[in-house]
């Protein structure tokens, strides 16, 4: 992970996501791109100066980015880390996807807080939009202002319906190697036994996990998948969650469950969403 993109709105939540990103690649060479996106609906931080609105927003964006860069360089003395800032006008998710493509970003890290009570139950609208739009790199969401904790136990939730390869699993294995983490694979028991394709995919996954401490678990299907996952996270004291996002995946099904069923999935740990490699 040599290039990490971190969007910011200059909130403490966004800065906390940046600080987490820095800690995850501690002592590793990495360039961080700190991005602020603004549009005509972005509130001005100061009184109107008589300038063109767009120009004033641009000026405030650049000043805010300068302040964030100064702060993170003070908080992160790691000489292997480089910080660059980007100020853009437009729509966040599309700009993030464009930067990911042009700069070959390895990871997007975002602070997660919904702008309404309903959104906060699972993932904020900006995060969900980014996950659905960015197809070329993983997206890591950081819950509001949690302290950084080196991940000791990483949960990888899967249904074994898709094959695994080195590229798909790289962000998961990178973090496990970086922190000596145990990888706990969770499968929700929607069927009595795995079919031959699931069995083959599980075997491939095991091969990749052999260099790491690992365990495999079957969880019963409760009223909804969110409850099954949340129960697993609590029982094993998981401090980092990872899933692969593809059509009809567990993640897609969880996000489409009715809001009342997703209440239990109010995560308080980092959540890594890995795009399908297809």
From TrEMBL:
Record-annotated membrane-spanning stretches: none
Pfam family, one: Usp
Domain UspA, chain residue ranges per copy: 2-142
Superkingdom in the source lineage: Bacteria
CDD domains: USP-like
Family of the protein in this entry: Belongs to the universal stress protein A family.
Protein known as: Nucleotide-binding universal stress protein, UspA family
Organism: Kriegella aquimaris
High-level lineage: Bacteria, Pseudomonadati, Bacteroidota, Flavobacteriia, Flavobacteriales
């Amino acid at each position: 992970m040599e290039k990490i993109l971190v969007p910011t709105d200059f909130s403490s939540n966004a800065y906390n996501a940046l600080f987490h990103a820095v800690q995850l690649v501690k002592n590793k060479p990495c360039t961080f791109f700190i991005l602020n996106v603004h549009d005509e609906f972005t509130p001005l931080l100061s009184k109107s100066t008589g300038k063109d609105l767009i120009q004033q927003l641009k000026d405030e964006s650049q000043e805010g980015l300068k302040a964030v860069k100064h702060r993170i360089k003070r908080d992160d003395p790691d000489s292997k880390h480089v910080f660059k800032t980007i100020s853009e006008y437009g729509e966040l998710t599309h700009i993030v996807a464009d930067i990911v493509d042009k700069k070959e970003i390895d990871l997007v890290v975002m602070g997660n807080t919904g702008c309404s009570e309903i959104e906060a139950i699972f993932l904020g609208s900006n995060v969900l939009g980014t996950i659905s739009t960015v197809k070329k790199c993983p997206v890591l969401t950081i819950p509001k202002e949690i302290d950084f904790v080196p991940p000791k136990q990483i949960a990888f939730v899967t249904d074994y319906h898709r094959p695994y390869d080195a590229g798909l699993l790289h962000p998961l294995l990178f973090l496990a190697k970086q922190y000596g983490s145990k990888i706990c694979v969770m499968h929700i028991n929607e069927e009595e036994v795995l079919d031959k394709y699931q069995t083959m995919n599980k075997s491939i996954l095991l091969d990749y996990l052999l260099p790491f401490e690992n365990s495999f678990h079957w969880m019963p299907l409760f009223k909804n998948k969110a409850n099954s996952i949340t129960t697993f996270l609590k029982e094993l004291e998981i401090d980092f969650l990872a899933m692969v996002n593809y059509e009809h995946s567990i993640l897609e099904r969880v996000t489409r469950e009715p809001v009342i069923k997703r209440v239990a999935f109010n995560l308080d740990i980092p959540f890594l969403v890995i795009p399908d490699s297809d």
